[in-house]
Design goal:
heterodimer, A: mainly alpha, 9 helices, 66% helix, B: mainly alpha, 55% helix
Protein backbone atom coordinates (compact mmCIF):
# COMPACT_ATOMS: atom_id res chain seq x y z
CA UNK A 1 0.00 0.00 0.00
CA UNK A 2 1.47 3.32 -0.96
CA UNK A 3 1.62 6.28 1.36
CA UNK A 4 -1.24 8.22 -0.24
CA UNK A 5 -3.53 5.21 0.14
CA UNK A 6 -2.50 4.97 3.78
CA UNK A 7 -3.17 8.67 4.40
CA UNK A 8 -6.62 8.36 2.83
CA UNK A 9 -7.84 5.85 5.39
CA UNK A 10 -9.38 7.16 8.63
CA UNK A 11 -6.57 7.59 11.14
CA UNK A 12 -6.76 5.81 14.50
CA UNK A 13 -6.69 7.88 17.69
CA UNK A 14 -3.16 6.77 18.60
CA UNK A 15 -1.83 8.32 15.40
CA UNK A 16 -3.92 11.50 15.39
CA UNK A 17 -3.75 12.31 19.12
CA UNK A 18 0.06 12.39 19.39
CA UNK A 19 0.36 14.55 16.23
CA UNK A 20 -2.15 16.99 17.71
CA UNK A 21 -0.17 16.93 20.96
CA UNK A 22 3.01 17.78 19.04
CA UNK A 23 1.37 21.06 17.96
CA UNK A 24 2.09 22.26 21.52
CA UNK A 25 5.92 22.01 21.41
CA UNK A 26 6.01 22.90 17.69
CA UNK A 27 4.36 26.27 18.31
CA UNK A 28 6.44 26.90 21.44
CA UNK A 29 9.76 26.08 19.82
CA UNK A 30 9.16 27.61 16.38
CA UNK A 31 7.66 30.84 17.61
CA UNK A 32 7.11 30.92 21.39
CA UNK A 33 3.36 30.70 20.81
CA UNK A 34 0.80 28.86 22.92
CA UNK A 35 -1.61 26.56 21.12
CA UNK A 36 -5.13 27.98 21.04
CA UNK A 37 -7.63 28.56 18.28
CA UNK A 38 -10.75 30.26 19.60
CA UNK A 39 -8.92 33.55 20.21
CA UNK A 40 -8.77 33.89 16.40
CA UNK A 41 -12.48 34.76 16.58
CA UNK A 42 -11.64 37.61 18.96
CA UNK A 43 -8.92 38.88 16.62
CA UNK A 44 -11.36 38.92 13.70
CA UNK A 45 -13.80 40.95 15.84
CA UNK A 46 -11.00 43.30 16.91
CA UNK A 47 -9.91 43.75 13.28
CA UNK A 48 -13.34 44.11 11.67
CA UNK A 49 -15.95 45.35 14.19
CA UNK A 50 -14.17 46.68 17.31
CA UNK A 51 -17.01 49.20 17.88
CA UNK A 52 -15.12 50.92 20.71
CA UNK A 53 -15.67 47.86 22.95
CA UNK A 54 -12.74 47.67 25.41
CA UNK A 55 -12.44 43.89 24.92
CA UNK A 56 -11.59 44.50 21.26
CA UNK A 57 -9.25 47.47 21.75
CA UNK A 58 -5.83 45.90 21.35
CA UNK A 59 -3.26 45.51 18.64
CA UNK A 60 -4.60 42.37 16.93
CA UNK A 61 -1.69 42.52 14.45
CA UNK A 62 0.57 41.28 17.26
CA UNK A 63 -1.49 38.09 17.26
CA UNK A 64 -1.58 37.68 13.51
CA UNK A 65 0.24 34.33 13.69
CA UNK A 66 -3.03 32.92 15.07
CA UNK A 67 -4.94 33.99 11.94
CA UNK A 68 -2.26 32.37 9.75
CA UNK A 69 -2.66 29.16 11.76
CA UNK A 70 -6.43 29.21 11.38
CA UNK A 71 -6.19 29.93 7.65
CA UNK A 72 -3.81 26.97 7.50
CA UNK A 73 -6.50 24.74 9.05
CA UNK A 74 -8.88 25.90 6.32
CA UNK A 75 -6.25 25.13 3.64
CA UNK A 76 -5.66 21.73 5.25
CA UNK A 77 -9.36 21.07 4.74
CA UNK A 78 -9.11 21.97 1.04
CA UNK A 79 -5.98 19.82 0.57
CA UNK A 80 -7.67 16.84 2.22
CA UNK A 81 -10.74 17.24 0.04
CA UNK A 82 -8.57 17.41 -3.10
CA UNK A 83 -5.98 14.74 -2.44
CA UNK A 84 -6.75 12.59 0.59
CA UNK A 85 -10.47 12.02 0.37
CA UNK A 86 -11.67 8.58 1.40
CA UNK A 87 -14.34 6.85 -0.66
CA UNK A 88 -15.33 4.37 2.04
CA UNK A 89 -18.49 5.09 3.99
CA UNK A 90 -18.26 6.34 7.55
CA UNK A 91 -18.62 3.82 10.39
CA UNK A 92 -21.03 5.04 13.07
CA UNK A 93 -22.09 3.35 16.31
CA UNK A 94 -25.25 1.31 15.81
CA UNK A 95 -27.11 2.88 18.73
CA UNK A 96 -26.46 6.34 17.32
CA UNK A 97 -27.62 5.26 13.86
CA UNK A 98 -30.84 3.92 15.36
CA UNK A 99 -31.38 7.04 17.45
CA UNK A 100 -30.84 9.33 14.45
CA UNK A 101 -33.14 7.31 12.21
CA UNK A 102 -35.87 7.94 14.81
CA UNK A 103 -35.54 11.64 13.94
CA UNK A 104 -35.63 10.95 10.21
CA UNK A 105 -31.86 11.25 9.79
CA UNK A 106 -31.20 8.20 7.66
CA UNK A 107 -28.44 9.27 5.28
CA UNK A 108 -25.33 8.51 7.32
CA UNK A 109 -22.46 9.47 5.05
CA UNK A 110 -19.63 11.94 5.01
CA UNK A 111 -18.58 13.60 8.25
CA UNK A 112 -21.56 15.90 8.76
CA UNK A 113 -25.19 14.83 8.27
CA UNK A 114 -26.50 16.64 5.20
CA UNK A 115 -30.03 16.28 6.59
CA UNK A 116 -29.08 18.53 9.52
CA UNK A 117 -26.43 20.85 8.11
CA UNK A 118 -27.18 21.12 4.38
CA UNK A 119 -28.19 24.44 2.78
CA UNK A 120 -31.79 23.20 2.64
CA UNK A 121 -31.71 23.17 6.46
CA UNK A 122 -30.49 26.74 6.98
CA UNK A 123 -34.05 28.06 6.85
CA UNK A 124 -35.61 25.45 9.13
CA UNK A 125 -36.10 25.91 12.88
CA UNK A 126 -33.95 22.85 13.61
CA UNK A 127 -31.21 24.06 11.28
CA UNK A 128 -31.24 27.57 12.76
CA UNK A 129 -31.02 26.23 16.32
CA UNK A 130 -28.15 23.85 15.47
CA UNK A 131 -26.08 26.11 13.20
CA UNK A 132 -26.87 29.66 14.31
CA UNK A 133 -27.59 29.18 18.00
CA UNK A 134 -25.03 26.38 18.34
CA UNK A 135 -22.38 28.47 16.58
CA UNK A 136 -23.22 31.45 18.78
CA UNK A 137 -22.69 29.33 21.90
CA UNK A 138 -19.33 28.12 20.56
CA UNK A 139 -18.12 31.70 20.07
CA UNK A 140 -19.65 33.12 23.24
CA UNK A 141 -18.73 30.18 25.47
CA UNK A 142 -15.12 29.81 24.36
CA UNK A 143 -14.34 33.48 24.94
CA UNK A 144 -16.20 33.50 28.26
CA UNK A 145 -14.16 30.45 29.29
CA UNK A 146 -10.96 31.97 27.87
CA UNK A 147 -10.24 29.10 25.50
CA UNK A 148 -11.55 26.04 23.72
CA UNK A 149 -10.56 22.42 23.33
CA UNK A 150 -7.12 23.41 22.02
CA UNK A 151 -6.35 26.27 24.41
CA UNK A 152 -7.71 24.72 27.60
CA UNK A 153 -8.07 20.95 27.09
CA UNK A 154 -4.79 20.42 25.22
CA UNK A 155 -2.49 23.40 25.89
CA UNK A 156 -3.75 24.18 29.40
CA UNK A 157 -3.82 20.57 30.60
CA UNK A 158 -0.37 19.97 29.07
CA UNK A 159 0.88 22.82 31.27
CA UNK A 160 -0.97 21.35 34.29
CA UNK A 161 -3.18 24.40 34.75
CA UNK A 162 -6.03 23.82 37.22
CA UNK A 163 -8.28 26.49 35.58
CA UNK A 164 -7.95 24.57 32.31
CA UNK A 165 -8.98 21.34 34.03
CA UNK A 166 -12.05 23.12 35.44
CA UNK A 167 -12.83 24.48 31.96
CA UNK A 168 -12.35 21.08 30.31
CA UNK A 169 -14.65 19.38 32.83
CA UNK A 170 -17.22 22.12 32.13
CA UNK A 171 -16.93 21.60 28.34
CA UNK A 172 -17.53 17.88 28.80
CA UNK A 173 -20.39 18.41 31.27
CA UNK A 174 -22.05 20.86 28.86
CA UNK A 175 -21.63 18.42 25.99
CA UNK A 176 -23.07 15.49 27.95
CA UNK A 177 -26.06 17.57 29.10
CA UNK A 178 -26.77 18.87 25.60
CA UNK A 179 -26.27 15.58 23.72
CA UNK A 180 -28.29 13.44 26.11
CA UNK A 181 -30.91 15.73 27.64
CA UNK A 182 -31.57 18.65 25.28
CA UNK A 183 -30.46 17.65 21.76
CA UNK A 184 -33.13 14.90 21.43
CA UNK A 185 -35.83 17.60 21.62
CA UNK A 186 -34.04 19.73 19.01
CA UNK A 187 -33.54 16.79 16.64
CA UNK A 188 -37.23 15.88 17.01
CA UNK A 189 -38.30 19.31 15.65
CA UNK B 1 -4.16 50.74 24.43
CA UNK B 2 -6.86 50.95 27.05
CA UNK B 3 -6.39 49.30 30.37
CA UNK B 4 -8.18 45.98 30.50
CA UNK B 5 -9.95 44.70 33.57
CA UNK B 6 -8.67 41.45 35.03
CA UNK B 7 -7.34 39.26 32.27
CA UNK B 8 -9.42 36.15 31.63
CA UNK B 9 -8.13 35.42 28.14
CA UNK B 10 -4.67 33.94 28.44
CA UNK B 11 -4.59 33.00 24.78
CA UNK B 12 -4.01 36.59 23.72
CA UNK B 13 -0.48 36.83 24.93
CA UNK B 14 0.26 40.39 23.92
CA UNK B 15 -2.31 41.36 26.60
CA UNK B 16 -0.80 39.18 29.29
CA UNK B 17 1.48 41.28 31.47
CA UNK B 18 3.36 38.17 32.58
CA UNK B 19 4.27 37.09 29.07
CA UNK B 20 5.64 40.04 27.18
CA UNK B 21 8.06 37.89 25.25
CA UNK B 22 6.51 38.75 21.90
CA UNK B 23 8.43 42.02 21.80
CA UNK B 24 11.81 40.39 22.19
CA UNK B 25 12.38 39.24 18.64
CA UNK B 26 11.15 41.06 15.58
CA UNK B 27 10.65 38.63 12.73
CA UNK B 28 9.78 39.42 9.12
CA UNK B 29 6.14 38.92 8.17
CA UNK B 30 6.81 36.01 5.85
CA UNK B 31 7.92 33.95 8.87
CA UNK B 32 4.21 33.60 9.58
CA UNK B 33 4.11 31.06 6.74
CA UNK B 34 5.30 28.45 9.25
CA UNK B 35 2.04 28.88 11.16
CA UNK B 36 0.14 28.40 7.92
CA UNK B 37 1.96 25.10 7.37
CA UNK B 38 1.44 23.94 10.97
CA UNK B 39 -2.24 24.88 10.66
CA UNK B 40 -2.55 22.88 7.45
CA UNK B 41 -1.02 19.80 9.12
CA UNK B 42 -3.39 20.25 12.04
CA UNK B 43 -6.36 20.60 9.67
CA UNK B 44 -5.46 17.42 7.77
CA UNK B 45 -5.13 15.50 11.06
CA UNK B 46 -8.48 16.80 12.31
CA UNK B 47 -10.21 15.56 9.18
CA UNK B 48 -8.45 12.23 8.70
CA UNK B 49 -8.97 11.31 12.36
CA UNK B 50 -12.64 12.33 11.95
CA UNK B 51 -12.41 14.75 14.89
CA UNK B 52 -14.46 17.12 12.72
CA UNK B 53 -17.20 14.51 12.35
CA UNK B 54 -20.53 15.40 13.93
CA UNK B 55 -21.06 11.65 14.50
CA UNK B 56 -17.80 11.22 16.44
CA UNK B 57 -18.73 14.11 18.74
CA UNK B 58 -22.17 12.61 19.36
CA UNK B 59 -20.57 9.21 20.10
CA UNK B 60 -18.18 10.87 22.56
CA UNK B 61 -20.96 12.56 24.53
CA UNK B 62 -23.02 9.35 24.54
CA UNK B 63 -20.04 7.19 25.59
CA UNK B 64 -20.55 5.10 22.44
CA UNK B 65 -16.96 5.27 21.25
CA UNK B 66 -13.52 5.62 22.75
CA UNK B 67 -12.11 7.40 19.70
CA UNK B 68 -12.41 11.05 20.79
CA UNK B 69 -11.27 10.29 24.34
CA UNK B 70 -8.26 8.52 22.85
CA UNK B 71 -7.44 11.47 20.58
CA UNK B 72 -7.73 14.11 23.32
CA UNK B 73 -6.09 11.92 25.97
CA UNK B 74 -3.06 11.00 23.87
CA UNK B 75 -2.74 14.61 22.65
CA UNK B 76 -2.61 15.82 26.26
CA UNK B 77 -0.11 13.09 27.18
CA UNK B 78 2.25 14.06 24.35
CA UNK B 79 1.69 17.78 25.02
CA UNK B 80 2.36 17.40 28.75
CA UNK B 81 5.53 15.38 28.17
CA UNK B 82 6.73 18.03 25.70
CA UNK B 83 6.03 20.90 28.09
CA UNK B 84 7.78 18.99 30.88
CA UNK B 85 10.86 18.46 28.70
CA UNK B 86 10.89 22.07 27.49
CA UNK B 87 10.86 23.28 31.11
CA UNK B 88 13.26 20.65 32.42
CA UNK B 89 15.85 21.09 29.65
CA UNK B 90 15.21 24.85 29.44
CA UNK B 91 14.75 24.52 25.69
CA UNK B 92 14.67 27.89 23.94
CA UNK B 93 12.69 28.89 20.86
CA UNK B 94 14.49 28.90 17.50
CA UNK B 95 14.99 32.65 18.00
CA UNK B 96 16.78 32.01 21.29
CA UNK B 97 13.91 33.25 23.44
CA UNK B 98 13.15 31.69 26.79
CA UNK B 99 9.85 29.83 26.51
CA UNK B 100 7.43 31.17 29.10
CA UNK B 101 4.02 29.60 29.55
CA UNK B 102 1.14 31.62 31.00
CA UNK B 103 -0.03 30.74 34.50
CA UNK B 104 -3.80 30.90 34.26
CA UNK B 105 -5.91 32.11 37.16
CA UNK B 106 -9.35 30.80 38.00
CA UNK B 107 -12.51 32.75 37.27
CA UNK B 108 -16.12 31.62 37.16
CA UNK B 109 -16.20 32.16 33.38
CA UNK B 110 -14.30 28.92 32.98
CA UNK B 111 -17.36 27.13 34.40
CA UNK B 112 -20.21 29.20 32.90
CA UNK B 113 -18.50 29.76 29.57
CA UNK B 114 -17.26 26.17 29.57
CA UNK B 115 -20.80 24.80 29.97
CA UNK B 116 -22.14 27.10 27.23
CA UNK B 117 -19.34 26.08 24.88
CA UNK B 118 -20.05 22.42 25.73
CA UNK B 119 -23.69 22.94 24.65
CA UNK B 120 -22.53 24.48 21.38
CA UNK B 121 -19.95 21.75 20.82
CA UNK B 122 -22.59 19.01 21.10
CA UNK B 123 -25.01 20.92 18.84
CA UNK B 124 -22.65 21.86 16.02
CA UNK B 125 -20.38 18.84 16.48
CA UNK B 126 -17.43 21.19 16.20
CA UNK B 127 -15.14 23.26 18.32
CA UNK B 128 -13.44 26.28 16.70
CA UNK B 129 -10.57 24.40 14.98
CA UNK B 130 -12.83 21.85 13.26
CA UNK B 131 -15.15 24.63 12.07
CA UNK B 132 -12.41 25.99 9.80
CA UNK B 133 -11.43 22.48 8.68
CA UNK B 134 -15.06 21.60 7.86
CA UNK B 135 -15.39 24.75 5.76
CA UNK B 136 -12.20 23.95 3.84
CA UNK B 137 -13.34 20.35 3.39
CA UNK B 138 -16.36 21.64 1.52
CA UNK B 139 -19.13 21.94 4.10
CA UNK B 140 -20.12 25.42 2.95
CA UNK B 141 -23.02 25.87 5.39
CA UNK B 142 -20.43 25.96 8.17
CA UNK B 143 -19.89 29.55 7.06
CA UNK B 144 -23.19 30.24 8.82
CA UNK B 145 -21.90 28.57 11.99
CA UNK B 146 -18.61 30.51 11.84
CA UNK B 147 -20.45 33.81 11.41
CA UNK B 148 -22.63 32.85 14.38
CA UNK B 149 -19.51 32.03 16.42
CA UNK B 150 -18.01 35.43 15.53
CA UNK B 151 -21.26 37.06 16.61
CA UNK B 152 -21.14 35.11 19.88
CA UNK B 153 -17.58 36.28 20.51
CA UNK B 154 -18.56 39.88 19.74
CA UNK B 155 -21.62 39.76 22.01
CA UNK B 156 -19.45 38.34 24.82
CA UNK B 157 -17.03 41.25 24.35
CA UNK B 158 -19.90 43.73 24.38
CA UNK B 159 -21.46 42.43 27.61
CA UNK B 160 -18.31 41.18 29.29
CA UNK B 161 -18.46 43.65 32.19
CA UNK B 162 -22.02 42.61 33.07
CA UNK B 163 -21.20 38.90 33.21
CA UNK B 164 -20.03 37.11 36.37
CA UNK B 165 -16.35 36.20 36.23
Amino acid sequence: MNIIEWIKQPWPWYVAGPIIGLMVPALLIFGNKTFGISSSLRHVCAACVPAKIPFFQYDWKKEIWNLFFVFGIFLGGILTALYFQDDASVVVNENLVNELSGYGITEINGLIPEQLFGWSQVGTLRGIILMVFGGFLVGFGTRYAGGCTSGHAIMGLSNLQLPSLIATISFMAGGFIMANLILPYILAL
Amino acid sequence: MQQQTTNTDFEVRSLDAMCVNDEEVKTPGWHNIKYLIMGAVFGIVLIKSEVISWYRIQEMFRLQSFHMFGVIGSAVAVGALSVFLIKKLKIKSIYGETIVLPEKSFNKGQIYGGLLFGFGWAMTGACPGPLFAQLGYGATTILVTILAALTGTWVYGKFREQLPH
